[in-house]
Amino acid sequence: MRESEAACVEARALDGVLIVDKPSGTSSGFACRRMQRHFGFRKAGHLGTLDPLATGVLPLCINEGTRLAQFLMHADKEYVATMRLGIVTDTQDSQGRVLSATDTSVCTAEEVRAACARFQGEQLQLPPMYSALKRAGRPLYELARRGETVERQPRPVTVYALEVLALALPEVTLRVHCSGGTYVRTLCHDIGQALGCGAHMSALRRTRCGRFVIGDAIALEEALARDDGAVPGRSFVAMREALQDMPEAMVAPELERMVCHGAALRGPEVATLRVDALPEGGLIKLIAADGRLLSIGQFSRTGSDGSVMRPVRVFAH
After folding, report:
1. Mean per-residue pLDDT for 151-170?
2. Whether residues 137 and 126 fall in one domain
3. Which of 15, 51, 93, 190 is catalytic?
């Protein structure tokens, strides 16, 4: 379901994803809790943490939509970032303690563009100490605030596109399209190291998280100022549509009860789904005749002439 941009929908009873524009100075967790209390969501959780400094797209899974998180968490993302050359901080952004300052007058625009170009593609990135990653159940940022540094393993990330939008040295504005799990402030730090002058991220705005875009988001302040319990329809994405990239199949009415109770479909029952070329281990949305998302199943073959669709996630109705 998608409402027109002018229409509003009652938020409390919605199951799906609400697209919020998070302001700077607010943590993702705090924004999520404020929205949950204000609208009375039974459950709520955010997809992909934005640092307090950052603004932009923060998708909130609400009510039954929280059960979609595992399928949406690792989507690719797009950002507009400002990189400040010449200053290195312990947090790799402007909120940290300055570790070094270097003259950047010798850096040219051509050198900056060339350095940025080298950071496109697949690469290994060392997660920063000031991050929500956990070690022995504790976030790394808690250890960092105590002055501790622990060994971290570089992680594979992909920068699909890294475009220089503006150069006003020592500041550089970048458009970054990257895989989930990429730290843009670490990317800025690493570019600075490659240039030899150091750098940190001074501003960040997430413009897209998977299929959720900034043009559909409702500002956090605007949402919290509403006293009618409603949000613009454009900022809400129903569960079925939130998984738009996952194939789907209609379940025969006589099989809906089985699917809703978490039973696997086998042989001829799988054949009724009429799905072509679903790969081994492939995920599929199972949809009721009235359009409801019943479950997410996983396909496998049990033999030369057999197949099974096992439930991965069953949704309450």
Report:
1. 96
2. yes
3. 51
